[in-house]
């Protein structure tokens, strides 16, 4: 029985008590655009994190493993335009250099965390970061400063991504969850697929943090794809300071699901050059694992994604992708729906001119569902993807400029 209520509020990562954040310009982006963000916590906490599955993880992730994992931290510094990835030992030394300068300026900072996003394979200009430290106001808190932080972590993102919730328990206790994320390219369902920072004042045990974060990431950030590429810098952080004194596991899980699903679908909706958000629902699979495999194959298929771009209800590409995914499937048991239009049903082609027209109208929408029923078992899973068109090629043909 539901024993809580959830309400959307403003404030992003600053919505929970005890969290401060802001964004400033260090000169990484042109024209004075915001390009460095921070999150500061009055009460340090042990962060829970999930990182990229890419073998060549970036220097900030290596630094976290070496210097911060398992320790209390109260500060995150995020820069854009440079991923500090594939920069060797020098990349980690660069982090130590600017974080040392940060602690000199702000003695209250404890075990700071570095996070970066941008071009791979280029040394970070640490002096630009150090020179911007006088601009950091660790007392910055509220809706506007949270917005500036979410703006500062953007790269090719067309819009900032943030959310905050107020969760009221039946006994009158209240806690909050806030978050911000960035991501529009190099998005593939293999871990977190972007940068995401979640804050909460819930009194959540460390073991619950790990359990719930890994559980929810499976159906959110691990279930999205823009282009099938996994970044070197993918990072998902959860910071829980416990200052509200309130916690309910079911309520927190539901709030976390809302936060992560919203940010995950925002990332797909903002996919570089994207015009559509499509849910690939695979049901009737032999197992959930097989449903995941087929659904991810569909969300990563370039042929399927280009058909989405052209509003082409080419169900043959969908069927072919399922057949090539390696899951148990049969022509006589498979059914395919574009929206609510059945185009193939258990070996029978339903794709006449009338249904093609209806399916085309569905695909013209900004968001719709493609359902594939394998007709074999109870396995079900959904992934989220966008179309792939000319603008994606244009953006990524000269990303370093």
TrEMBL record:
The record marks 117-118 as: Involved in the stabilization of negative charge on the oxyanion by the formation of the oxyanion hole. The record marks 192-193 as: Cleavage. Its EC number is 2.3.1.35, 2.3.1.1. Pathway: Amino-acid biosynthesis; L-arginine biosynthesis; N(2)-acetyl-L-ornithine from L-glutamate: step 1/4; Amino-acid biosynthesis; L-arginine biosynthesis; L-ornithine and N-acetyl-L-glutamate from L-glutamate and N(2)-acetyl-L-ornithine (cyclic): step 1/1. It holds the Pfam family ArgJ. It is an enzyme of class 2 (transferase). Catalyzes two activities which are involved in the cyclic version of arginine biosynthesis: the synthesis of N-acetylglutamate from glutamate and acetyl-CoA as the acetyl donor, and of ornithine by transacetylation between N(2)-acetylornithine and glutamate. Belongs to the ArgJ family. NCBIfam families: ArgJ, PRK05388.1. This is Arginine biosynthesis bifunctional protein ArgJ. It comes from Helicobacter brantae.
């Amino acid at each position: 029985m539901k024993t809580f209520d959830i309400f959307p509020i403003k404030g992003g990562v600053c919505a929970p008590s005890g969290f401060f954040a802001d964004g400033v310009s260090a000169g990484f982006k042109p024209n004075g655009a915001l390009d460095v963000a921070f999150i500061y916590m009055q009460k340090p906490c042990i962060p829970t994190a999930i990182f990229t599955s890419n073998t060549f993880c970036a220097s900030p992730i290596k630094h976290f493993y070496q210097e911060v994992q398992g320790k209390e931290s109260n500060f995150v510094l995020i820069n854009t335009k440079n991923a500090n990835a594939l920069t060797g030992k020098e990349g980690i030394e660069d982090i130590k250099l600017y974080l040392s300068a940060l602690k000199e300026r702000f003695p209250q900072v404890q075990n700071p965390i570095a996070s970066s996003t941008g071009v791979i394979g280029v040394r970070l200009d640490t002096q630009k970061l150090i020179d911007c430290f006088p601009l950091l106001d660790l007392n910055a808190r509220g809706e506007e400063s949270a917005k500036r932080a979410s703006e500062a972590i953007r790269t090719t993102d067309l819009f900032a991504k943030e959310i905050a919730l107020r969760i009221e328990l039946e006994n009158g206790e209240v806690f909050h969850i806030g978050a911000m994320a960035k991501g529009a390219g190099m998005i593939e369902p293999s871990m977190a697929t972007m940068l995401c920072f979640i804050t909460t004042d819930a009194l959540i045990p460390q073991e619950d943090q790990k359990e719930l974060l890994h559980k929810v990431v499976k159906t959110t950030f691990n279930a999205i794809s823009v282009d099938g590429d996994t970044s070197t810098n993918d990072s998902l952080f959860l910071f829980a300071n416990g200052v509200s004194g309130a916690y309910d596991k079911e309520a927190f899980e539901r709030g976390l699901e809302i936060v992560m699903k919203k940010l995950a679908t925002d990332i797909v909706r903002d996919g570089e050059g994207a015009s559509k958000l499509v849910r690939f629902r695979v049901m009737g699979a032999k197992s959930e694992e097989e449903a995941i495999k087929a659904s991810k194959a569909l969300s990563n298929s370039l042929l399927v994604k280009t058909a989405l771009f052209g509003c082409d209800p080419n169900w043959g590409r969908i069927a072919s992708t399922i057949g090539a995914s390696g899951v148990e499937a049969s022509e006589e048991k498979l059914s395919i729906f574009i929206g609510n239009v059945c185009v193939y049903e258990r070996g029978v082609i339903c794709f006449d001119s009338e249904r093609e027209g209806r399916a085309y109208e569905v695909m013209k929408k900004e968001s719709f569902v493609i359902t594939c029923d394998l007709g074999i078992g109870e396995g079900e899973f959904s992934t989220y993807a966008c179309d792939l068109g000319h603008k994606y090629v244009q953006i990524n043909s000269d990303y370093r400029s």
